[in-house]
Protein 1
Amino acid sequence: MDLTIIKILAKISMFDFLINNMKNNLLPIIKLPYNVVKGSIERRQQKADKLVERFYQDLYPKFQKCGYIRPKQLEESMTKVLPPKLKITLEEGEAGFFDAWSDVIPSNGKYHAAKINKMTIGISNEHHKKIPAKYLPTIIHEMQHIADSLYHPKHLARNQYIQSHNLDNYRFDQLYENFLYNLEDFNTAQDKISILKKLEYRIKKFLKRLSVEEKINYLQDIRYTILQEQKAYNTEFKYAKKLKKKHFDVTEDSLTKNNDFMFPEKLALLGKMIAEIIKRERGFHAAKIKKMKAKSIEKKPN
């Protein structure tokens, strides 16, 4: 990614930090103390990865013993490795899916003041009694989401802002699910360029007539979400390979690198679009200030 874009994104991240702390505080039950999450992005990611590794080390022997675990055992491992007082639950989810999500509830009946009040790992409902060992990498994938949300709190705060301001609507869901968090069909580099051009057009169409603040909020939320998905899939693949070497049964999906999502390319596109909006806005304000100064000089008496 271009160095200028990286610098702009870093400045936006600092702006995120200030806004999130002043207007969009996370509840203590879903965040870690500042002294735990402070430091560089790389340092925080290392801490998140260590939490996931501790979770794996605690969970693996349980699966190894019987070839499956009970949800209660999964919950015990979560409780053991996660810091106390955090509200991270285990619930029955949709058929065929393991998932992770955050729940937003209104504050005093006001949805614009809504807060995330818990994070959840969802178990596929056909496995609500027994979870087969082959799904261990998938569970690790979901725990990576939880760990990343804890150690990168601005990701969670951005998501809270999107939901509490009713920006998480049908149009946004359709854009994300159908054109961002989706598998792409390509064979050549030119195919990728074509896909990205079409994606940029769809995103710009979605953002049309929105305020600069709303555009940045949407783009940053998508960027953070894709960053987390990229990390979670890489983690799932890493642990699936490790388990396969131990002759552990794992699913073919977990052993697939999922390059067809085009996560790196989509992240680069989102970074470019954010930088362009910021640059355009800066140019607009610079021209406005220049015009005001010129008028001020004209009004001065000789």
Protein 2
Amino acid sequence: MARPKLDKIVNLFDNGKDFEMTRSQYISYTGADIPQNKRYTEEKSAIARKAFEYGYEVKVIPERLEFHKVK
């Protein structure tokens, strides 16, 4: 599996608003596919760690990711 390039997603985190992206958008932004394991994707993946760094949490919904600003 390719390592995701998260530079483009960081701009979305900087907005400070909840957002979501489809699997195809994630691939377009990062050059990598969404990890197959839901728990890993939400808690330990590169995108989960980056989201947490910016105060977000990741929720995996089939074929898309939701990012929620933690209050």
Protein 3
Amino acid sequence: MKNVLCRKTEENIDLIKRNIDYLFIFLLYLLPHLFMHFNRWDDILYTTYFESYNYNLFSFISRQYQFWTSRVVIEAAVILFGWLPSIVWKVVDTLMIVLLYHSLSGIIKLLLGKREPDKKFRLCQMLLFLSFPYALMATAGWLTTTINWTWMLASFVYSIKILLYSVNGMSQRKSVIRNILFGMACIYATNFDVAAIIMFVLLVII
């Protein structure tokens, strides 16, 4: 029994060591997220929209589609997360950042032909990722800008990663959950017009 527990503990420690960059990015971004608020520009409007439309999501996205934008999935996400407790957005946004880092890492690994990048390579990769000034994601308010850009980009890059791995015959564990996540990511990302065009071109090429 002790040997089994020791083995599992060692495996867990090894897993943490191999993914320390993911943990570091998650914690590094989560801490400032705790002090972010929806009190700027578009956020002030979107946090009240759901209530002003009597919690009728279809009515809201129908109006947005007719008079403002075709990004109905993204718009729906903005008002839903604006209505939910802000901690939900803070955790999900941090996870989206980690997903973006993970997907970019996978694509870079594929392009460079590296199975398991060494520590120096992963450190440089992490530092380059962290060099982006995330304060730019507050230009229209934290809620509005991140859901329109960070979440779209994370979903888009994740979708591209899955497609590239499949085209290159890279083995991936097949699971229903993975397929559902891939489908959701594609739908969310391609609801952004520019991403939809890029995805269409990539599908034609590959």
Protein 4
Amino acid sequence: MNHEVIHASDAKGALAHNSLRQRALERLEREGADHEATGCVDRAQEYLTLCDGHSDPMRGMHTFFQFPQNPENALDVPWECYVDGQTLFQGALNATVTVAHKSLQPVGKWRTICQDFCRDYAFYERAIQLQQERQLSRRIVLARNEAILLVVDELSRPRIMRENHQRDLKLTMTLEYPRELRAEQSSEFQEALLLAGPEPTDALARVFPLMAQERRADNQRDALTIMPRRRIIQINRERRGVTALSVLMIDFNARRLKRPYTWRPLAVGQDMRLVNEEEAVARIAQLGVEQYVLYASTSTRVATRSVLGLHTVSDFLFGKFTASRALTPIVDVSID
């Protein structure tokens, strides 16, 4: 599916003809939906819009997703993301799934698992069936007050088929950015900084692959790669097992972009033992002076687990950690 490119100058005027943003807003307007809320979907669950509360499209963050209705291209999800009227991402948020070196294709359509739109956050989860009786779920999370967007892809298999079926798994997430921006990556850390100009003060957002190690190294299987000629940022996640998780985090807070950052794995406990990625994962990211924690259960069994002193039965949790208040959830999704 082709989309007309929106340049920075165009974004400050009328909406580009037939842009994803235009189509999504027109659909929501026809249906009488409140597209100025933190999150909103149309009745057909085709268009998802997220914003940080600014009704003015020239202020704040606005992002739009379109979930393809045709299984053949279902993993190429068109999206557009704007910050203060500047186009940040445009094209497809592509997912590629490989099991035992074989690329898996969808065999069904996206279906909605959970959605929760409120004043402080938006949470939207969809899943699609793949070949070899596997499933890809995608969680899209906007923490409005924190200026953070998360995209969490999880490859899984039904419970009855999980035992003794470990395979080499690979999840690849690809993002396209417009030609008026440039992406920079340090020689030390696995992150990408998007800039609108040549100066550090021109930074718009930073992209983190939370499941990869923070520091770059040779021959890394989990890695973030910038392909400037193709205007692509690619995140690879590889492991041997039954389930795999890939986490994209985007920080839109211009103030934080000038400050130090770091991220690392967190231990998750259950029944006096540490669990591995087949049951749950957790990560902590420090952005300036602020610390954020992501926790996701990858098991089909509900269990009480602990992370940073918090005991939870949640399926997904994103929160803020402080020394005085410990871990305070921002988004907390329970298993039904």
